[in-house]
Amino acid sequence: MLDVHGPIRGRRQRPRVPHGDEWPRPAARRGEGTRATTGRAPRSRVPRPHPGGAGRVLFPGGDSTTSEKEERVPTPRKEAQVAELVEVLGRAEIAISARYQGVSMAKQNELRRKLRDAGAEMHVVKNTLLRIAAEQSGRPQFADLAEGPTAVIVGFDEPVGPSKALVAYLRENADSKVKIGKAVVDGVLVDEAYIRDLATLPTKEELVAKLAGNLVGKIAEFSGLLVATQRKFVGLVEARAKQLEEAG
After folding, report:
1. pLDDT for 68-113, tens place per residue?
2. What is the domain-level CATH number for residue 122?
3. Looking at the domain assignment, is residue 111 inside a domain?
4. Residue 141's closest CA among 180, 190, 81, 184?
5. Does a structural domain hold residue 135?
6. Which residues constitute the domain of residue 153?
7. In this structure, are residues 142 and 189 in contact, taking their beta carbons and an 8 Å threshold?
8. What are phi and psi of 203, to 5 degrees?
């Protein structure tokens, strides 16, 4: 008799597929685990240097930081600028800082011409170079002029001429964006009001001309007195001679 309950020979039985939680969980690797199972937090990734940044370290999810300070090597051009500034500051009788942002090149050239006629120059330099030049020239007070983007107006003969030229330019260009800052006059740090007061004084050339005019006037007056005295003396001599002739 055929056994209907036994396995049927000649047919392959399908494997039983597990359901739900019957699936086996993979075994954890050695050294791994969660805080709930091992009591330790998973290890963070070690940051690696960015290929394009020397000395930088990029942290996951954060900004980059600099691991070491980059050294700035002075270029030959900057060294030449510092050497020129050292020579200029060493001869300066006055130095005025002026802000020039927003001033057209044509107006800057106009100001340069006025300053040149007054025996002054305008230099646009970086504050770091100005501080270095002030230290190397032995006149550290000029470093106080390095505040923001500024131009330095330097006069060599006397301080009044450059001050008058700058104030005259501002008076002729009332809408100019040039602003007077601090200044160094005879080694003393002064403000804008001092420069404007200085501009009201006569220049050395004007003083020389005035003095020469006074001298010429005094000499002419003295010469006139001499001539008048001589004439008076001659008149007295002639009158006395006439008296002697009449008495004789």
Report:
1. 343 355 688 889 999 999 999 999 999 999 998 888 999 999 999 9
2. 3.30.70.1730
3. yes
4. 184
5. yes
6. 76-198
7. no
8. -75, 175
